[in-house]
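Sequence of Mitochondrial pyruvate carrier (Oryza brachyantha).
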Amino acid sequence: MAASKFQALWNHPAGPKTIHFWAPTFKWFLNIANVADFAKPPEEISYTQQVALSCNGLIWARYSMVITPKNWNLFSVSSALACTCVYQISRKIRLKKGHLYMFLRLFLYSFMVGMTD
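Predicted 3D structure, token representation.
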């Protein structure tokens, strides 16, 4: 039974004998690199890079479900890439929001102190 499943995978149109298997498999390294960047401070995250990679993930996830045969390896790696990129973008936005909040507090404090003098 296991041999027949392995044989079916091996001979699948998107199986290991084709580029349709290996390209998404190596794309997992983009996800690994993005997850490793979770340890980076949000200041070092690039909006343009993360937006480009998330669009890439969304486009290819959609494409992998339209083509025949469906490429589940491509779908899973592209979906994971989009999710990790959206998380990175949210980290950057939360940082900017925090800086804006601190700036407004300092501005309002200095304004209030200036009014009492």
